[in-house]
Protein backbone atom coordinates (compact mmCIF):
# COMPACT_ATOMS: atom_id res chain seq x y z
CA UNK A 1 0.00 0.00 0.00
CA UNK A 2 1.49 3.35 -1.04
CA UNK A 3 0.63 6.71 0.48
CA UNK A 4 1.42 10.21 -0.73
CA UNK A 5 0.57 13.52 0.89
CA UNK A 6 0.65 16.75 -1.13
CA UNK A 7 0.80 19.37 1.57
CA UNK A 8 -0.27 23.04 1.57
CA UNK A 9 -1.21 23.25 -2.10
CA UNK A 10 -3.81 25.34 -3.89
CA UNK A 11 -6.43 23.18 -5.63
CA UNK A 12 -8.43 23.86 -8.79
CA UNK A 13 -12.05 22.88 -8.15
CA UNK A 14 -14.11 22.17 -11.29
CA UNK A 15 -17.84 21.71 -10.56
CA UNK A 16 -20.17 20.18 -13.12
CA UNK A 17 -21.79 23.59 -13.57
CA UNK A 18 -21.03 27.13 -12.48
CA UNK A 19 -17.76 28.85 -11.65
CA UNK A 20 -14.50 27.02 -11.17
CA UNK A 21 -12.49 28.20 -8.19
CA UNK A 22 -9.14 27.81 -6.48
CA UNK A 23 -9.09 26.63 -2.86
CA UNK A 24 -5.87 27.61 -1.11
CA UNK A 25 -3.88 25.76 1.55
CA UNK A 26 -5.19 22.24 1.02
CA UNK A 27 -3.71 18.82 1.74
CA UNK A 28 -4.32 16.06 -0.79
CA UNK A 29 -4.08 12.53 0.59
CA UNK A 30 -3.41 9.73 -1.89
CA UNK A 31 -3.56 6.03 -1.13
CA UNK A 32 -2.42 3.63 -3.85
CA UNK A 33 -3.98 4.97 -7.07
CA UNK A 34 -6.77 7.08 -5.52
CA UNK A 35 -7.34 10.41 -3.86
CA UNK A 36 -8.79 9.56 -0.44
CA UNK A 37 -9.20 13.02 1.06
CA UNK A 38 -8.67 16.72 0.43
CA UNK A 39 -8.67 18.80 3.61
CA UNK A 40 -7.61 22.30 4.63
CA UNK A 41 -3.97 22.27 5.71
CA UNK A 42 -3.76 21.84 9.46
CA UNK A 43 -7.52 21.52 9.89
CA UNK A 44 -8.63 19.64 13.02
CA UNK A 45 -9.92 16.25 12.00
CA UNK A 46 -7.71 15.90 8.95
CA UNK A 47 -5.79 13.21 10.82
CA UNK A 48 -9.01 11.36 11.61
CA UNK A 49 -10.42 11.70 8.12
CA UNK A 50 -7.48 9.99 6.48
CA UNK A 51 -6.01 7.89 9.21
CA UNK A 52 -2.65 9.51 8.58
CA UNK A 53 -0.70 11.59 11.06
CA UNK A 54 0.34 14.99 9.86
CA UNK A 55 3.30 13.24 8.25
CA UNK A 56 6.09 15.26 9.83
CA UNK A 57 9.17 13.11 9.72
CA UNK A 58 8.07 11.27 6.62
CA UNK A 59 10.07 11.76 3.44
CA UNK A 60 9.58 15.40 2.36
CA UNK A 61 10.13 15.80 -1.35
CA UNK A 62 9.47 19.44 -2.11
CA UNK A 63 10.08 20.05 -5.80
CA UNK A 64 13.22 22.05 -5.03
CA UNK A 65 13.40 24.09 -8.17
CA UNK A 66 9.67 24.77 -8.33
CA UNK A 67 9.34 25.63 -4.64
CA UNK A 68 12.43 27.82 -4.53
CA UNK A 69 11.40 29.46 -7.78
CA UNK A 70 7.99 30.34 -6.36
CA UNK A 71 9.53 31.83 -3.23
CA UNK A 72 12.18 33.75 -5.13
CA UNK A 73 9.64 35.15 -7.57
CA UNK A 74 7.57 36.71 -4.82
CA UNK A 75 10.12 37.19 -2.07
CA UNK A 76 7.75 35.93 0.61
CA UNK A 77 8.24 32.89 2.83
CA UNK A 78 4.90 31.34 1.89
CA UNK A 79 5.83 31.56 -1.79
CA UNK A 80 3.02 33.97 -2.70
CA UNK A 81 3.54 37.66 -3.39
CA UNK A 82 0.98 39.94 -1.76
CA UNK A 83 -0.75 40.79 -5.01
CA UNK A 84 -0.61 37.20 -6.30
CA UNK A 85 -1.93 35.90 -3.01
CA UNK A 86 -4.83 38.35 -3.07
CA UNK A 87 -5.62 37.37 -6.66
CA UNK A 88 -5.74 33.68 -5.86
CA UNK A 89 -7.76 34.37 -2.74
CA UNK A 90 -10.26 36.46 -4.71
CA UNK A 91 -10.76 33.60 -7.14
CA UNK A 92 -11.37 31.13 -4.33
CA UNK A 93 -14.00 33.50 -2.94
CA UNK A 94 -15.80 33.97 -6.24
CA UNK A 95 -19.57 33.31 -6.26
CA UNK A 96 -20.06 29.73 -5.16
CA UNK A 97 -16.68 29.54 -3.44
CA UNK A 98 -16.53 27.95 -0.04
CA UNK A 99 -15.24 29.61 3.07
CA UNK A 100 -15.01 27.85 6.39
CA UNK A 101 -18.33 26.13 5.79
CA UNK A 102 -17.18 24.84 2.41
CA UNK A 103 -13.89 23.66 3.88
CA UNK A 104 -15.79 21.66 6.46
CA UNK A 105 -17.86 20.24 3.61
CA UNK A 106 -14.74 19.05 1.86
CA UNK A 107 -13.53 17.47 5.08
CA UNK A 108 -16.88 15.77 5.61
CA UNK A 109 -16.87 14.51 2.04
CA UNK A 110 -13.56 12.81 2.66
CA UNK A 111 -15.23 10.86 5.45
CA UNK A 112 -18.14 9.78 3.29
CA UNK A 113 -18.95 6.06 3.36
CA UNK A 114 -17.22 4.28 0.55
CA UNK A 115 -14.33 6.74 0.18
CA UNK A 116 -11.54 4.24 -0.50
CA UNK A 117 -9.01 4.04 2.30
CA UNK A 118 -10.51 7.04 4.09
CA UNK A 119 -10.89 5.24 7.39
CA UNK A 120 -8.92 2.77 9.42
CA UNK A 121 -5.46 3.44 8.00
CA UNK A 122 -2.68 3.85 10.54
CA UNK A 123 0.51 4.20 8.54
CA UNK A 124 2.07 7.57 7.68
CA UNK A 125 2.45 8.60 4.04
CA UNK A 126 5.60 7.31 2.41
CA UNK A 127 6.17 10.58 0.59
CA UNK A 128 5.25 14.15 1.42
CA UNK A 129 5.29 16.64 -1.45
CA UNK A 130 5.47 20.28 -0.41
CA UNK A 131 2.86 22.06 -2.52
CA UNK A 132 3.59 25.53 -1.19
CA UNK A 133 3.32 28.09 -3.98
CA UNK A 134 1.94 25.48 -6.41
CA UNK A 135 -1.50 24.89 -7.89
CA UNK A 136 -2.84 21.34 -8.16
CA UNK A 137 -4.94 20.71 -11.25
CA UNK A 138 -6.46 17.51 -12.60
CA UNK A 139 -3.96 15.78 -14.86
CA UNK A 140 -4.61 16.97 -18.39
CA UNK A 141 -6.13 14.70 -21.04
CA UNK A 142 -5.09 14.82 -24.68
CA UNK A 143 -8.45 13.72 -26.03
CA UNK A 144 -7.34 12.98 -29.60
CA UNK A 145 -3.82 12.43 -30.88
CA UNK A 146 -1.57 10.24 -33.00
CA UNK A 147 1.35 10.12 -30.62
CA UNK A 148 4.11 8.54 -32.77
CA UNK A 149 3.70 11.32 -35.33
CA UNK A 150 6.07 13.39 -33.20
CA UNK A 151 8.66 11.77 -35.47
CA UNK A 152 7.24 13.82 -38.38
CA UNK A 153 7.24 17.11 -36.47
CA UNK A 154 7.95 19.95 -38.90
CA UNK A 155 8.12 17.70 -41.97
CA UNK A 156 4.80 18.70 -43.57
CA UNK A 157 4.47 22.47 -43.41
CA UNK A 158 2.58 25.11 -45.41
CA UNK A 159 0.35 22.64 -47.23
CA UNK A 160 -3.38 22.44 -47.89
CA UNK A 161 -5.09 19.46 -46.30
CA UNK A 162 -5.13 17.43 -49.54
CA UNK A 163 -1.39 17.88 -50.11
CA UNK A 164 -0.65 17.43 -46.43
CA UNK A 165 -2.11 13.93 -46.66
CA UNK A 166 -1.23 12.97 -50.24
CA UNK A 167 2.21 14.52 -50.67
CA UNK A 168 3.59 14.08 -47.16
CA UNK A 169 1.85 12.16 -44.39
CA UNK A 170 0.45 9.09 -46.06
CA UNK A 171 3.58 8.60 -48.19
CA UNK A 172 5.68 8.92 -45.02
CA UNK A 173 3.58 6.32 -43.23
CA UNK A 174 4.74 3.71 -45.73
CA UNK A 175 7.90 3.80 -43.60
CA UNK A 176 6.18 2.84 -40.34
CA UNK A 177 7.59 -0.12 -38.45
CA UNK A 178 6.91 -1.38 -34.96
CA UNK A 179 10.27 -0.07 -33.76
CA UNK A 180 9.80 3.40 -35.26
CA UNK A 181 6.36 3.67 -33.71
CA UNK A 182 7.71 2.60 -30.31
CA UNK A 183 10.47 5.20 -30.45
CA UNK A 184 8.03 7.94 -31.44
CA UNK A 185 5.56 6.93 -28.75
CA UNK A 186 8.24 7.07 -26.06
CA UNK A 187 9.13 10.62 -27.10
CA UNK A 188 5.45 11.57 -27.15
CA UNK A 189 4.84 10.15 -23.67
CA UNK A 190 7.82 12.05 -22.34
CA UNK A 191 6.63 15.32 -23.86
CA UNK A 192 3.10 14.90 -22.56
CA UNK A 193 4.05 13.92 -19.01
CA UNK A 194 6.46 16.85 -18.68
CA UNK A 195 3.58 19.13 -19.71
CA UNK A 196 1.13 17.74 -17.16
CA UNK A 197 -0.75 15.39 -19.51
CA UNK A 198 -1.62 12.23 -17.60
CA UNK A 199 -3.93 10.58 -20.15
CA UNK A 200 -3.90 10.48 -23.94
CA UNK A 201 -6.46 9.11 -26.37
CA UNK A 202 -4.59 7.71 -29.34
CA UNK A 203 -5.53 6.56 -32.83
CA UNK A 204 -2.67 4.98 -34.75
CA UNK A 205 -0.91 1.95 -36.15
CA UNK A 206 1.19 -0.57 -34.17
CA UNK A 207 -0.85 0.29 -31.10
CA UNK A 208 0.85 -2.49 -29.12
CA UNK A 209 4.07 -0.50 -29.32
CA UNK A 210 2.31 2.63 -28.11
CA UNK A 211 0.96 0.61 -25.19
CA UNK A 212 4.48 -0.53 -24.32
CA UNK A 213 5.69 3.08 -24.27
CA UNK A 214 2.73 4.17 -22.14
CA UNK A 215 3.28 1.39 -19.63
CA UNK A 216 6.99 2.17 -19.40
CA UNK A 217 6.46 5.91 -18.94
CA UNK A 218 3.65 5.63 -16.40
CA UNK A 219 1.08 7.60 -18.42
CA UNK A 220 -2.55 6.54 -18.86
CA UNK A 221 -3.79 5.81 -22.41
CA UNK A 222 -6.83 4.80 -24.41
CA UNK A 223 -5.59 3.27 -27.67
CA UNK A 224 -7.46 2.68 -30.92
CA UNK A 225 -5.60 0.56 -33.52
CA UNK A 226 -6.22 2.32 -36.85
CA UNK A 227 -7.45 0.58 -39.99
CA UNK A 228 -8.61 1.41 -43.52
CA UNK A 229 -11.00 -0.74 -45.55
CA UNK A 230 -8.42 -0.73 -48.35
CA UNK A 231 -6.10 -2.80 -46.13
CA UNK A 232 -8.47 -5.78 -46.39
CA UNK A 233 -10.40 -7.93 -43.96
CA UNK A 234 -7.33 -9.63 -42.49
CA UNK A 235 -5.94 -6.27 -41.43
CA UNK A 236 -9.27 -5.24 -39.94
CA UNK A 237 -9.52 -8.52 -38.03
CA UNK A 238 -5.98 -7.99 -36.76
CA UNK A 239 -6.92 -4.50 -35.54
CA UNK A 240 -9.92 -5.95 -33.71
CA UNK A 241 -7.73 -8.54 -32.00
CA UNK A 242 -5.13 -5.97 -31.07
CA UNK A 243 -7.86 -3.90 -29.43
CA UNK A 244 -8.95 -6.88 -27.38
CA UNK A 245 -5.36 -7.70 -26.39
CA UNK A 246 -4.52 -4.13 -25.39
CA UNK A 247 -7.31 -3.98 -22.85
CA UNK A 248 -5.68 -6.83 -20.89
CA UNK A 249 -2.16 -5.41 -20.72
CA UNK A 250 -2.24 -2.96 -17.82
CA UNK A 251 -4.76 -1.18 -15.58
CA UNK A 252 -3.75 2.17 -17.11
CA UNK A 253 -4.41 0.98 -20.67
CA UNK A 254 -7.90 0.93 -22.17
CA UNK A 255 -8.75 0.30 -25.81
CA UNK A 256 -11.24 1.40 -28.44
CA UNK A 257 -11.93 0.26 -31.98
CA UNK A 258 -10.26 2.50 -34.53
CA UNK A 259 -11.72 2.72 -38.05
CA UNK A 260 -9.96 5.68 -39.64
CA UNK A 261 -12.87 7.71 -40.99
CA UNK A 262 -16.23 7.58 -42.70
CA UNK A 263 -14.50 8.30 -46.04
CA UNK A 264 -11.79 5.62 -45.72
CA UNK A 265 -13.86 2.82 -44.17
CA UNK A 266 -16.88 1.42 -45.98
CA UNK A 267 -20.35 1.39 -44.47
CA UNK A 268 -20.17 -2.40 -44.36
CA UNK A 269 -16.95 -2.31 -42.34
CA UNK A 270 -18.37 0.39 -40.06
CA UNK A 271 -21.40 -1.85 -39.39
CA UNK A 272 -19.08 -4.73 -38.62
CA UNK A 273 -17.04 -2.50 -36.29
CA UNK A 274 -20.19 -1.35 -34.51
CA UNK A 275 -21.26 -4.95 -34.03
CA UNK A 276 -17.90 -5.85 -32.55
CA UNK A 277 -18.01 -2.79 -30.29
CA UNK A 278 -21.42 -3.78 -28.92
CA UNK A 279 -20.39 -7.38 -28.44
CA UNK A 280 -17.18 -6.49 -26.61
CA UNK A 281 -18.55 -3.52 -24.69
CA UNK A 282 -16.19 -1.05 -26.34
CA UNK A 283 -16.55 2.27 -28.05
CA UNK A 284 -15.34 3.48 -31.44
CA UNK A 285 -12.81 6.27 -32.02
CA UNK A 286 -12.79 7.69 -35.55
CA UNK A 287 -12.63 10.82 -37.70
CA UNK A 288 -15.94 12.14 -39.03
CA UNK A 289 -17.17 15.43 -40.46
CA UNK A 290 -13.66 16.80 -40.09
CA UNK A 291 -14.38 19.63 -42.53
CA UNK A 292 -17.37 21.20 -44.24
CA UNK A 293 -15.87 19.98 -47.54
CA UNK A 294 -16.06 16.40 -46.28
CA UNK A 295 -19.69 16.85 -45.30
CA UNK A 296 -20.53 18.38 -48.67
CA UNK A 297 -18.74 15.55 -50.50
CA UNK A 298 -20.62 12.94 -48.46
CA UNK A 299 -23.94 14.55 -49.35
CA UNK A 300 -23.03 14.69 -53.03
CA UNK A 301 -21.81 11.08 -53.21
CA UNK A 302 -24.11 9.33 -50.75
CA UNK A 303 -26.97 11.72 -50.00
CA UNK A 304 -26.19 11.74 -46.26
CA UNK A 305 -23.86 13.58 -43.92
CA UNK A 306 -21.03 11.69 -42.17
CA UNK A 307 -22.99 11.90 -38.91
CA UNK A 308 -25.96 10.24 -40.65
CA UNK A 309 -23.54 7.53 -41.83
CA UNK A 310 -22.51 6.94 -38.22
CA UNK A 311 -26.13 6.55 -37.20
CA UNK A 312 -27.07 4.31 -40.11
CA UNK A 313 -24.12 1.99 -39.51
CA UNK A 314 -24.72 1.68 -35.76
CA UNK A 315 -21.54 3.49 -34.74
CA UNK A 316 -23.40 6.08 -32.67
CA UNK A 317 -25.51 3.43 -31.00
CA UNK A 318 -22.36 1.54 -30.00
CA UNK A 319 -20.72 4.69 -28.63
CA UNK A 320 -18.21 6.94 -30.37
CA UNK A 321 -15.49 9.49 -29.90
CA UNK A 322 -15.61 11.70 -32.99
CA UNK A 323 -12.41 13.50 -33.85
CA UNK A 324 -12.81 17.12 -34.97
CA UNK A 325 -16.41 17.37 -36.21
CA UNK A 326 -15.84 20.79 -37.80
CA UNK A 327 -18.27 19.86 -40.56
CA UNK A 328 -21.11 18.91 -38.21
CA UNK A 329 -24.22 20.75 -39.38
CA UNK A 330 -27.27 22.02 -37.57
CA UNK A 331 -29.33 19.12 -38.93
CA UNK A 332 -26.85 16.65 -37.40
CA UNK A 333 -27.46 17.89 -33.86
CA UNK A 334 -30.80 16.10 -33.25
CA UNK A 335 -29.11 12.85 -34.33
CA UNK A 336 -26.24 13.37 -31.91
CA UNK A 337 -28.68 14.31 -29.16
CA UNK A 338 -30.22 10.82 -29.37
CA UNK A 339 -26.83 9.32 -28.53
CA UNK A 340 -25.46 12.07 -26.29
CA UNK A 341 -25.01 9.64 -23.41
CA UNK A 342 -22.39 7.70 -25.41
CA UNK A 343 -21.00 10.23 -27.89
CA UNK A 344 -18.13 12.65 -27.38
CA UNK A 345 -16.25 14.97 -29.74
CA UNK A 346 -12.57 15.98 -29.56
CA UNK A 347 -11.60 19.47 -30.71
CA UNK A 348 -8.04 20.32 -31.85
CA UNK A 349 -8.34 23.91 -33.11
CA UNK A 350 -4.71 24.74 -33.84
CA UNK A 351 -4.88 22.15 -36.63
CA UNK A 352 -7.96 23.75 -38.18
CA UNK A 353 -6.23 27.10 -38.36
CA UNK A 354 -2.98 25.72 -39.69
CA UNK A 355 -4.63 23.73 -42.48
CA UNK A 356 -7.04 26.59 -43.23
CA UNK A 357 -9.96 24.22 -42.84
CA UNK A 358 -12.46 27.09 -42.66
CA UNK A 359 -14.35 26.00 -39.55
CA UNK A 360 -13.77 24.81 -36.00
CA UNK A 361 -15.74 22.35 -33.90
CA UNK A 362 -19.26 23.70 -33.19
CA UNK A 363 -18.89 23.29 -29.44
CA UNK A 364 -21.81 25.51 -28.50
CA UNK A 365 -24.21 23.51 -30.64
CA UNK A 366 -22.86 20.19 -29.40
CA UNK A 367 -23.22 21.20 -25.77
CA UNK A 368 -26.76 22.45 -26.44
CA UNK A 369 -27.74 18.84 -27.20
CA UNK A 370 -25.75 17.34 -24.32
CA UNK A 371 -22.69 16.04 -26.19
CA UNK A 372 -19.47 16.19 -24.18
CA UNK A 373 -16.49 17.84 -25.84
CA UNK A 374 -12.83 17.30 -25.00
CA UNK A 375 -9.65 19.08 -26.05
CA UNK A 376 -6.79 17.50 -27.96
CA UNK A 377 -3.73 18.22 -30.05
CA UNK A 378 -4.12 15.81 -32.96
CA UNK A 379 -0.71 14.57 -34.15
CA UNK A 380 2.45 16.65 -33.85
CA UNK A 381 2.97 16.31 -37.62
CA UNK A 382 0.39 19.11 -37.89
CA UNK A 383 0.07 20.50 -34.36
CA UNK A 384 3.87 20.51 -33.92
CA UNK A 385 3.55 19.98 -30.17
CA UNK A 386 1.57 17.76 -27.84
CA UNK A 387 1.08 20.75 -25.54
CA UNK A 388 -2.50 20.55 -24.26
CA UNK A 389 -2.14 23.94 -22.53
CA UNK A 390 -1.72 25.45 -25.98
CA UNK A 391 -4.76 23.56 -27.23
CA UNK A 392 -6.84 24.79 -24.28
CA UNK A 393 -5.94 28.37 -25.12
CA UNK A 394 -6.77 27.86 -28.79
CA UNK A 395 -10.19 26.40 -27.95
CA UNK A 396 -11.09 29.45 -25.89
CA UNK A 397 -9.94 31.91 -28.55
CA UNK A 398 -11.38 30.17 -31.62
CA UNK A 399 -14.74 29.56 -29.99
CA UNK A 400 -15.13 33.22 -29.08
CA UNK A 401 -14.31 34.09 -32.66
CA UNK A 402 -16.62 31.43 -34.11
CA UNK A 403 -19.60 32.67 -32.12
CA UNK A 404 -18.62 36.37 -32.41
CA UNK A 405 -19.16 36.50 -28.67
CA UNK A 406 -16.41 37.48 -26.24
CA UNK A 407 -18.58 36.33 -23.32
CA UNK A 408 -18.87 32.75 -24.65
CA UNK A 409 -16.34 30.10 -23.65
CA UNK A 410 -15.64 31.60 -20.26
CA UNK A 411 -12.64 30.67 -18.16
CA UNK A 412 -14.71 28.20 -16.15
CA UNK A 413 -16.28 26.63 -19.23
CA UNK A 414 -12.89 26.27 -20.89
CA UNK A 415 -11.42 24.60 -17.82
CA UNK A 416 -14.45 22.31 -17.62
CA UNK A 417 -13.94 21.17 -21.22
CA UNK A 418 -10.25 20.62 -20.52
CA UNK A 419 -10.94 18.50 -17.46
CA UNK A 420 -14.38 16.92 -17.20
CA UNK A 421 -15.02 17.07 -20.96
CA UNK A 422 -11.70 15.53 -21.88
CA UNK A 423 -12.15 12.82 -19.25
CA UNK A 424 -15.44 11.93 -20.94
CA UNK A 425 -13.65 11.85 -24.30
CA UNK A 426 -11.20 9.35 -22.81
CA UNK A 427 -14.09 7.15 -21.67
CA UNK A 428 -13.10 7.79 -18.05
CA UNK A 429 -15.71 10.33 -17.00
CA UNK A 430 -16.12 8.89 -13.50
CA UNK A 431 -12.44 8.16 -12.90
CA UNK A 432 -10.39 11.22 -13.84
CA UNK A 433 -10.88 14.89 -14.73
CA UNK A 434 -11.43 16.37 -11.25
CA UNK A 435 -9.61 16.28 -7.93
CA UNK A 436 -12.06 14.60 -5.56
CA UNK A 437 -11.93 11.74 -3.07
CA UNK A 438 -12.48 8.44 -4.85
CA UNK A 439 -11.05 9.63 -8.17
CA UNK A 440 -7.82 8.42 -9.69
CA UNK A 441 -4.83 10.33 -8.35
CA UNK A 442 -3.86 11.92 -11.67
CA UNK A 443 -2.51 15.29 -10.55
CA UNK A 444 -0.31 18.03 -12.01
CA UNK A 445 1.32 20.64 -9.79
CA UNK A 446 1.80 23.93 -11.63
CA UNK A 447 4.11 26.80 -10.69
CA UNK A 448 2.58 30.17 -11.56
CA UNK A 449 5.55 32.23 -10.36
CA UNK A 450 7.19 32.83 -13.77
CA UNK A 451 6.99 36.32 -15.34
CA UNK A 452 4.54 35.23 -18.04
CA UNK A 453 2.00 34.38 -15.31
CA UNK A 454 2.55 37.24 -12.88
CA UNK A 455 0.87 39.06 -11.26
CA UNK A 456 -1.96 36.64 -10.51
CA UNK A 457 -5.32 38.40 -10.39
CA UNK A 458 -7.21 35.27 -11.42
CA UNK A 459 -5.50 31.88 -11.37
CA UNK A 460 -8.10 30.51 -13.76
CA UNK A 461 -7.10 33.12 -16.36
CA UNK A 462 -3.46 32.11 -15.94
CA UNK A 463 -4.34 28.45 -16.55
CA UNK A 464 -6.29 29.22 -19.72
CA UNK A 465 -4.24 32.02 -21.28
CA UNK A 466 -0.76 32.14 -19.74
CA UNK A 467 0.51 28.80 -18.48
CA UNK A 468 3.14 26.91 -20.45
CA UNK A 469 3.99 23.23 -20.34
CA UNK A 470 7.29 24.16 -18.68
CA UNK A 471 5.38 25.53 -15.67
CA UNK A 472 4.49 21.97 -14.62
CA UNK A 473 6.68 20.89 -11.70
CA UNK A 474 5.36 17.54 -10.46
CA UNK A 475 3.00 14.98 -11.99
CA UNK A 476 1.29 11.94 -10.50
CA UNK A 477 -0.52 9.25 -12.48
CA UNK A 478 -2.51 6.67 -10.53
CA UNK A 479 -0.78 7.89 -7.39
CA UNK A 480 2.74 7.38 -8.73
CA UNK A 481 5.13 10.31 -9.15
CA UNK A 482 6.16 10.26 -12.81
CA UNK A 483 7.57 13.80 -12.96
CA UNK A 484 9.42 15.26 -10.00
CA UNK A 485 10.91 18.75 -10.07
CA UNK A 486 10.44 18.88 -13.87
CA UNK A 487 12.32 15.62 -14.38
CA UNK A 488 10.91 12.30 -15.58
CA UNK A 489 11.20 9.54 -12.99
CA UNK A 490 10.36 6.63 -15.27
CA UNK A 491 12.49 7.16 -18.38
CA UNK A 492 15.90 8.55 -19.28
CA UNK A 493 14.98 11.59 -21.36
CA UNK A 494 18.47 11.85 -22.87
CA UNK A 495 18.18 8.29 -24.17
CA UNK A 496 14.62 8.85 -25.43
CA UNK A 497 15.71 11.93 -27.39
CA UNK A 498 18.83 10.27 -28.81
CA UNK A 499 16.85 7.27 -30.02
CA UNK A 500 14.28 9.51 -31.71
CA UNK A 501 16.94 11.63 -33.41
CA UNK A 502 18.66 8.50 -34.75
CA UNK A 503 15.50 7.19 -36.39
CA UNK A 504 13.56 10.30 -37.38
CA UNK A 505 15.07 10.61 -40.86
CA UNK A 506 13.92 7.10 -41.76
CA UNK A 507 10.27 8.09 -41.29
CA UNK A 508 10.25 11.22 -43.43
CA UNK A 509 12.07 9.60 -46.37
CA UNK A 510 9.82 9.77 -49.47
CA UNK A 511 12.14 7.88 -51.83
CA UNK A 512 10.27 4.56 -51.59
CA UNK A 513 7.15 5.95 -53.25
CA UNK A 514 3.60 4.81 -52.58
CA UNK A 515 1.22 5.79 -49.77
CA UNK A 516 -0.89 4.06 -47.17
CA UNK A 517 -4.00 5.80 -48.46
CA UNK A 518 -5.19 8.60 -50.77
CA UNK A 519 -7.16 11.57 -49.46
CA UNK A 520 -10.24 12.07 -51.61
CA UNK A 521 -13.28 12.34 -49.31
UniProtKB/TrEMBL annotation:
Keywords: Hydrolase. The keyword Hydrolase applies. Residues 136-482 form the Amidohydrolase-related domain. Residues 55-76, 93-106 have a biased composition (Low complexity). Pfam families: Amidohydro_1 (PF01979). Residues 39-127 are annotated as: Disordered. PANTHER family: AMIDOHYDROLASE-RELATED DOMAIN-CONTAINING PROTEIN, AMINOHYDROLASE SSNA-RELATED. This is Amidohydrolase.
Amino acid sequence: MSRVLIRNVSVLVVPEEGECRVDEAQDIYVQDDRIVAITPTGAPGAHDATGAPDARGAQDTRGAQGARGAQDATGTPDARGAEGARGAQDVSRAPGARGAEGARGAQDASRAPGAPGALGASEPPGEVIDGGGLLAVPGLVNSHTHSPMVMMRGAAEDLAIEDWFNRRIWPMEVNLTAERVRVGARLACAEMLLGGVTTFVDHYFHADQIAAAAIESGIRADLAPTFFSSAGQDAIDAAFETTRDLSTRHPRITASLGPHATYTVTDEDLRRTAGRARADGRRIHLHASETEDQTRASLEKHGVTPIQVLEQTGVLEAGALIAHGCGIREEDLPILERYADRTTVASCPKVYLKLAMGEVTPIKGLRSVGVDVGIGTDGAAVHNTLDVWEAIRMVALTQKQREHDAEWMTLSDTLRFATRGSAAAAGLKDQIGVLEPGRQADIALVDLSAPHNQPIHDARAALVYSVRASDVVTVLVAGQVVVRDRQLTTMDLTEVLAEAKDLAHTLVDLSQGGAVQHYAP
